[in-house]
Structures are given as C-alpha cells and as structure tokens.
Amino acid sequence: MSQLNLFKKKLSGSHLNIIVSVESAVKISDISVYLVGGTVRDILLDRSPSDLDFLIEGNIDLQYFANLIGGTLLQESRFGTFKIDFNGEIVDFAFSRQEIYPSPGQLPVVKKGTFKEDLYRRDFTINSIAIAIGEDGEFSKIIDPFGGQNDVLEKRIKVLHDKSFQDDPTRILRLFRYSGRLCFDIENSTRNILIRDLHMLDVISSDRLTNELYLILNEESASRAFIQYANHDDKMHLFDGAKIELSNFLKMDHQEVQSSKFSQELKFSILALSIPIEMLDTWVKKFNFNSDFLQILDGVFEINNIRGDLLKTNMNNSDLFALMNKINENVLRACLIIEEFSDLKEFIFLYLNKLKNLSVQLSGKDLIKLGITEGPKIGQILHELHVAKLNEMIFSLDDEKEFVQKINKNNS
Ligand code: CTP
Question: What structural domains and CATH numbers belong to the chain?
C-alpha cells in the first residue's frame, strides 16, 4: 500500500466501497474524480470524515453515472451539484465549476470550470486540497495548489485570496466555526482582511445568516465560535454592542448540553438568555428563525416576564404549573445551567421533576361512567382534578373518584 493510501484508514467500510464504485465509472468514461473539501481536510487531520464530497472533472450524464456506480440519483441543483443514494448513504457530487460574485453577499454566478478553478473558488486553503481517485479506488495523488497540507500541519486557517470574505461574507462565520472546531489559528494576513471585511456580514441575507448560526449551534465547540463573535462585535454587530456575559457561553460545553437530544436548542436557549432582553426583537428581524427557535425566544421573553411574579408571590403549584407550562422546556433547562437565573432554580426543578409529569388517572369516559353528563362539564372537571392533584389535595385513583363524586353531589 502506498503512503497515500494509509490515509484510507480513517474511512469507514461503506465509504471505501463507494470510492471503489465511483472509480468503476472513471474507468469506462471520460471523467476524472477527486475527493475534496472537508473530506480531505478531515482525512489529513486523522479524523473520520462524516461524509464524502466528490468533485468530477469532465462531462457525464447524471443518470448514466448513477447507474454505473450502482446508486440512485437524488436531487440535482442548478449549481452543478447532485446527490446519490448508496443504500441509504447520501453522497455529494459536484462538477468542477468556477464562481463569479456579482456583488458582495449575493449568491455567485456559477459556470463550468476546470478542476483547478474549482479548488480556487473555495474558502480556505485547508478546504482546497483534492485527492485523485485512481485504479480500484486507490488514492493516486494529492493535489494541493495553495499549500493547504502545510496549513493543516501548522494548524492555521488561511483564505486563498484577499477578496474571499467580500465574495462571500458567510465565510467569516465559517472561519470562526472552523477555528473553534479545530482549534486552529487565523493566519496573519487572513486576520487583517478579516478585520477589514467584518462589516460585510451586514449584507448577507437573513436566511444565510440563520443557516450559519444553526451550523455553529451543531458544533461541540459552539461556545468558542460565539466568544469570537462577541469579541468582534464592534464590526460584526450581532450583539449590537450589548454587554454579554461571555462565561454563559462556556455553559454550552457542559456534558448535559452536549449529549442532549436537544443540544442545538439548548445552546440557542443559553445564547438567547445571555443577550439583553431588548435585543430579542432585533434578533427576530435579523435572522429567519424556524418555529422551534421562535418558541425559544418567546420562552426567554416569558421567563423574564414572570420572574418578578414568581419571586414575589407565594404561588401554589397549580399557578406555577400554569406559568411554566407555557415556556419552552429548553429555555427552562438552560435557566438551570446559567447563573443569572439561579433564583428560579427551585421553581423550575419543581415544575420539571414533579408537576410536569403529574397527570390525572381518570379519563373523560371514566367520568361518564361515574355519572357526569357528557359535555363541557367533563373538561372542566378534568381540569379541576388536575389542579387538585398539583396542589396535593388528592393523590390516588380513589381520591380522584371521591373528588368527582363530591362535585357531582354538590351539583345535583
Ligand atoms: N465552500 C466555500 N465557501 C462557502 C461554503 C463552502 O468555499 N461559503 C466550499 C469549501 O471548500 C468546503 C466545501 O465548499 O470545503 C463544502 O462545504 P461544506 O459542506 O459546507 O463544508 P465541509 O468542507 O464539508 O466542512 P464541514 O466539516 O463543516 O461540513
């Protein structure tokens, strides 16, 4: 096995099979195929790539190509990219292209291009390295025109040219995402043009901005990226100069956040709880959040609203339930993690660990069997049962039945 093929040890069996299948198409057609982008970067970093990114040079009919390699052609985009499904594994392919940016922040005009032009249109040198696929899926050579391998070794992120952020300001956010994830430094000249171009973020659409935010929230290292955002806020304007409690961001690293099924939502809740409440409206305008994220922002607003009442009055459990039940649960869990809300902890604990799960055992049908007439009364009694249960006036099924009978008697 050649030295280059040692890199294959980080690829899964299914990825290796896909590479061999792809090579079978190269053999009998007039195309060249390369692995590129994050796949190559991760292989060089001795990490297992999560997906395969192929670049094709030359022309081939997509359906014919998919048949040749034994996959199913999925969607195709106007940017010369397409996806193929290999028994459930979705793989990205792209024809080599060049991009021309009509004006900063706008999507590029895409034209067919050479393989070298395709490497040159990319964001960072560490993402502009290709591995050519040779016979039987062997890695035949590395093509690295911009010194990306050296930058991987030296752990630094460098743009390919000094208009990179002007062409596509989302790369600014990508830079912070990668430097957070890989713990790489920002190369000196890249830092200078970054500082020069930070204000360009203002021109990107809210869809693209939101998409980048979602990607960052998916990262284990999200906190590091947000700290970078805050440190550059004078020009990035994501926090509009507000004073942010940066130590909150580090709470995103907690094991319970990272391993949660709702890790992305929890991190967003921590973020939203850390910005001044007056900024929530600005964020709703600036980003294009999906309904889950809008609910989180509502929850943050609501928890701030009810905070005073919770601390002032001696509420009973059913009142507490009525208030907390309206608030997104990720926001409540995030409040348990960050210091500013420590005064609410006991209420949130009570709600999450006890009240939320207390349900009435009797159903509407049971109530009819117990002699209650069908109609709105049923819902009303079920509600009263729930309130009584929350306030620890009744506990068992027998208590519930007795409670219903008492109501029935009083009403007759
Ligand atoms: N790319 C770019 N500019 C962008 C987005 C992407 O130049 N604004 C290029 C990069 O070369 C990148 C490739 O397109 O490597 C694929 O993009 P993407 O899938 O977003 O990133 P990956 O490299 O696969 O990295 P990740 O591990 O974050 O998925």
Answer: 1-154 (3.30.460.10), 155-238 (1.10.110.30), 244-354 (no CATH), 364-411 (no CATH)
